[in-house]
Specification:
Strand content: 15-25%
Structural class: alpha/beta
Number of helices: 15
Order of helices and strands: HHEHEEEEEHEEHHEHEHEHHEEHHHHH
Largest sheet: 7 strands, mixed
CATH class of the largest domain: Alpha Beta
Number of strands: 13
Bound molecules: adenosine-5'-triphosphate, magnesium ion
CATH superfamily of the largest domain: P-loop containing nucleotide triphosphate hydrolases
CATH architecture of the largest domain: 3-Layer(aba) Sandwich
Shape: elongated
Length: about 475
Amino acid sequence: MELFFRSFFVIFIGICFCWLLRIVLFRTGFVFVVKKRWRNLEDCFHVYQSFRIPEFNQSSQQNHLYRKVSAYLTSLSSLEDSDFTNLITGNAPNDIILRLDSNQTVQDNFLGAKLLWTNEENGSRNFVLRIRKADKRRILRPYLQHIHTLTADVIEQRKGDLKLFMNSKPNNQSDTRWKSIQFKHPSTFDSISMETDLKERVKSDLESFLKSKQYYHRLGRVWKRSYLLYGPSGTGKSSFVAAMANFLSYNVYDIDLFKVSDDSDLKLLLLQTTTKSIIVVEDLDRFLMDKSSTLSLSALLNFMDGILTSCCAEERVMVFTVNCKDLVDPAVLRPGRIDVHIHFPLCDFSAFKNLANNYLGVKDHKLFPQVEEIFQNGASLSPAEISELMITNRNSPSRAIKSVITALQTDVERRRISSIGRRLSDCGSRKSVAESVESGGVLCSENTQTGKELRKLYGFLRMKSNKISQTFDTSPMRKDS
Ligand SMILES: Nc1ncnc2c1ncn2[C@@H]1O[C@H](COP(=O)(O)OP(=O)(O)OP(=O)(O)O)[C@@H](O)[C@H]1O
Ligand SMILES: [Mg+2]
């Protein structure tokens, strides 16, 4: 009996000990420490071979394998076991993606072999793959093939997602010069109000460019096309670039030339762009007029010509926007450097009707003849100004059109005042010439007369401006009338 109790007691103590040990091992993470130490010990008896996959190749162009490995690693379930990972939101609203942090390692297994990936980030970005030497011959090629097939789908899927790249100030030459975000601009050719015929011509020009690889190569030319979009501010140039990107499904590289440090930096930026992309230089005229730039004109011309190598300008569309074409050196705009010039004018009546249709859903309105008449009197506003008025008053088309009429009338007055101002200054300069010859009585009396007229118009203009600011009041109390 005593023996029975004794053995029962020993079994009971044994069970309690195991239970406690389990708690200690799992609750404290002791098991992970043991596993890690065991792995390190095991590694001491194996020789590993390393393979580095840099983000850029020797000629500073993107290494596609790096992109594939990056996509592959995010799909690894073992990433959750890594000591340090970044959590990033994905494309879908509830999507959360794990991304390996810098200088962290993740383990993968393939055909019974252990593979270690490290994300190296010391100035440049690389992935380092470590495989046991004993497994290398058997594993390396099939493993890379496996990554290629797995990521092909993911990358193909992501092709639909366009990206907007922006250049930053250079910190380190080996560092990537482009930062990207998702490009989700809603602008399309349909949403842009411009002459239908012109729009169709641009569309077919882009379509024929897409199909012309052989043609360009036969002629010994780089397969690229350059567009100059010129016109006053707010006429839709930037929106048009976004529409082009959406139409072509191309990524957008938006180069800020003020952030380019020198000629070689501009070359590097071009080298780091990928095919099927639009390279945009906004406000080229503003940049060319700025004399403080360290960038030479010849570097800019070479950049536009894409002569660096055919591979870094191939299958690219270049777009330059300017407000005033006349301020740009003709060498920059010569045929071949710029293939297509597209003018973005201020609104006329037909553009207004287009905007009214798009923004207010109105094809015709009793106020249209009045609007047409004001346009005929020389009034003009940018599409941006008109579309803003329409958006503000979108609940009432009549109110929206009236606010446009008021703004157009103010524009007419503004133009009259500025023409009077010009006459005044002409008058002043003529007077000073006249005074040097004789005392110019006639010129003086004209001056006083014009001054009176100017004051009268200024008062009128102020009254009109007050009216316009009222149209922005979207309070429901306002009556349509
Ligand atoms: N032709 C147009 N059709 C439809 N909307 C337009 C048009 N032009 C301008 N807009 C509207 O005005 C806003 C400003 O346009 P955008 O930025 O494209 O002008 P921009 O010509 O690039 O001006 P800037 O020269 O000042 O950069 C946009 O949000 C767009 O919706
Ligand atoms: Mg713009």
